[in-house]
Amino acid sequence: MQNFKPVTKQDAPKLRRYYQNCSYGLCEYSVGTKLMWRKTLHPAWAEIAGCLVIRNTIDGQTAFDYPVPGPQGDEDAALAAIESYCLEAGVCPVISVVPECRAAKLLARYPYVRVSNIRTWRDYVYYREDLQFFTGRRYSGQRNHIKKFHTQWPDAFFRPLTAADASVIGRFWEDYEAEFPKGDNAKARDELALAKNMLKMAGKSFFLAGGMFDGDKLIALSLAERCGDTLIIHIEKALYSYTGVYPALVQAFANAFGGDCQWIDREDDAADRGLRTSKLQYGPAKLAPKYRFEPQNELLSHVKAIPELRTERLTLSALEEADIPAYNALVLDQERNRWWGYDDVTGLGGAVEERSFFDVARRDFANGLATNFAIRLDGKLIGEAVLYRFDYQGGAELGCRISREYDGHGYGTEAFAAVANWGLYKVHLNRVVAKCYKENEASFKMLSSCMRRSGEDETFFYFEKPV
């Protein structure tokens, strides 16, 4: 399984190698967001196929950012690694905060998928020139506020902030808290604490910080990060007693750090009514969507109950309580199962009890992870066929094992072919895949009779049967 490392301040330069040229234009694709909100997002990172892959854990659920490619990055390989990781972990490969420019790629990748695009989390994105000049009738309010601000405080000026300004910034926070209008709001207090910690990083090469001064007194500040052609504003704070300082800060910051950026992203509003009203008043060019993709496999989409399949000699159906003794004997036959490729006992993660394997099979089906068919001869369980590892792209793997006393009669081939056809024509898979150890001549012969070879490695021969 891929090794992910928790994001720390020390990782910032490595993440910036990807984010500095990222064209997604969303605040989540930045060092600032990962650091500022790491206690909420719990982000961890890995470099896969030349891409930065971020795994977040939010309220106990795993969700990945869309991969950010480097110069030689392979997005498809990174997505495949995410899917493989989730298959091993037994979780759905949720890919969240997907930029609009990548949404079509995921729609084409996943035949069945739930997609959401919640208004609350859309970023407010502005043309850089609009915030620099506030040109046109729609910005008359901002221009008036700025004019009044400079009339009342004619000596106010803007300049960059560096690490040398730590004491000045500290005094600003004291002044800000003294007139903080949301002191009784726990969420607002938490956000303020996060902002304070982030401003301690003013002067880092990847952050741009600046402030508005009234003489020696810092009265407003902002911290941002450039990612591709977008300037992402992480923090904007000002003393409310200085009327008009907010639009003055916005304009001064855009002039100082906008450079040749096309866009300025002032992040989302988190459903805060005041923030929403304010950000809309600045006339965003767009509310940038953030799509959330939750792929659904064919089992979840088409199979409500395990059906009964019939062949010339066999019946295949769901495991039943009465099957438990025979099923346990099948699973615990270590000599026979050396070719199975999976240690059922170790996979339990605990002591083996009478119902252990039966309960795992039922739970896997309920969670849409696998379908375990009992293979029956004259009503007696003689083996199982398992359709599992649904890859969310139309494929699934099929495995089959027969009790040793029934070996050599072609039952495995008969059951395998029946489940493969069911998967292709009733579950609507695009392909069924299988593998066998190179030393397992019987499985190789069986798979060769009903599938085609698709490759090999040092351990396995691989097979597939497309629709």
Please, could you describe this protein's structure?
The chain is an alpha+beta fold and 467 residues long. The chain folds into three domains: 5-122, 3-Layer(aba) Sandwich (Aminopeptidase), CATH 3.40.630; 123-267, 3-Layer(aba) Sandwich (Aminopeptidase), CATH 3.40.630; 298-466, Aminopeptidase, CATH 3.40.630.30. The chain contains 17 helices and 23 strands. The longest helix has 15 residues, at 75-89.
Instruction: State the CATH class of the largest domain.
Output: Alpha Beta
What's the number of domains?
3
Would you give the CATH topology of the largest domain? Aminopeptidase
Q: Pairing-aware structural class of the strands and helices?
A: alpha+beta
Q: Could you list the spans in which at least 5 consecutive residues all have pLDDT below 50?
A: none
The gyration radius over C-alpha positions equals: 29 Å
What percent of the residues sit in helical stretches (DSSP H or I)?
A: 25-40%
SS elements, strand count: 23
Distance between the termini: 30 Å
Task: Figure out the total of helices.
Answer: 17
Q: Could you say what the CATH architecture of the largest domain is?
A: 3-Layer(aba) Sandwich
**Percent in strands:** 25-35%
Globally, the shape reads elongated
CATH superfamily of the largest domain: Gcn5-related N-acetyltransferase (GNAT)
For the sheet with most strands, the description reads: 8 strands, mixed
- Averaged pLDDT, please? 94
